[in-house]
Amino acid sequence: MYDAIYEIKYRARRLIDTHPRLYRVLEKGWYVAFWSMIYAANLTGKIPFHHLRDFLYRTVFHIGLPKSSTIYGGCTFFSPWKMQVGEHSILGDHGFFDAREKIRIGNNVNIGKEVRIYTLEHDILSPTFSEKGGQVTLEDWVYIGSRVTILPQVTIGEGAVVASGAVVTRDVPPWVMVGGVPARYIRDRPKVDYTLGEFAKILFQ
To answer: Annotated catalytic sites, by residue?
Structure first.
């Protein structure tokens, strides 16, 4: 959506030479529209009713959110329209999802409260402090404990468990449990085959 406007803006760079004043107006307009959309998505997280909140996420902010999945209250976003959530997945309350480089969440994924997922970060070795990053992927049956931080360009394999408070800096293999800062292998996890979200959603959360 707003990324398409972003592309159009940069394809129209000839306006810098021919109509610099018009280009500045378009630049400012894009900037205001983008951050207004982010602000509105974050305000939506404060709505205490699941059905209304999830409806707005799907229709206004274009999060790929099936009706069998839910995002609990208080969550905040960057570029929510670049998020894709699978069936029967649960995103806990007060999480932060930076989807500027895309976040892909599989089926039956359980994400605890106050989880932080980043897809972009500053390169401290860059002379210009430039950004670097990439897509974050959580495959099916992943379980993320509360207050976990996941850094850019990480894939968490099918059925993996990340213990509460961990900081994930690299890919996690399927069917293992990791924890700590940075996250390291703790133990294997037996393969499972359950379906989340078959119970009633917690009221006002």
So the answer is: 122
